Amino acid sequence: MNKWVKLIADNSIVVMAVLVILLIIIPLPPAMADMMIVINMALSMMILIITMTIHDPLEFSIYPSILLLTTLFRLGINVSTTRNILSNGGDSGQIIKAFGDFVLQGNVVVGFVIYIVIVLMNFTVITKGAERVAEVSARFSLDAMPGKQMAIDSDLNAGLIDEREASRRRQNVQRESDFYGSMDGATKIVKGDSTMSIVTTAINLIGGTIVGMVQGGGSFTEVLNTYSIATVGDGLVGQIPSLLISTATGMIVTRAVAEGSLAEDISHEFTAQPRAFMIAGLMVLALTIIPGMPIVQIILAAAMFIGGGYMMQRKIEQEPEAVRTGQYQAAAARAGAPGGAAGQGAPATAAAGGQQGEAAEGAEQKPATEADFFKDVHNVYSLLTVEPVEMDFGYSLIPLADESVGGRLISRIVIFRRQYAQDMGFVVPSVRLRDSSNLGTNDYEIKIKGESVAKGEILTDYYLALTPEHPEREIEGIDTIEPAFGIPSKWIRADQRDKAELYGYTVIDPLSVMVSHLSEVVKAHSYELMTRQEVFRLVENLKKTAPELVAEAFPNLISYNLLQKVLTSLLKEGVSIKDLETIVETMVDVVTETGLPVKDIDSLVEQVRIALKRTITRMYCEDGTMRVVTLDADLERSMVSSLQKGESGYYLALSPDILQSLVKQVADTVKKFKALQQTPVILTSEVMRAHFYHLIEQFYPTVRVLSFNEIASNVQIQAIGSLRLETPEQRAATG
Question: What is the largest CA-CA distance in the chain?
Answer without folding.
Answer: 123
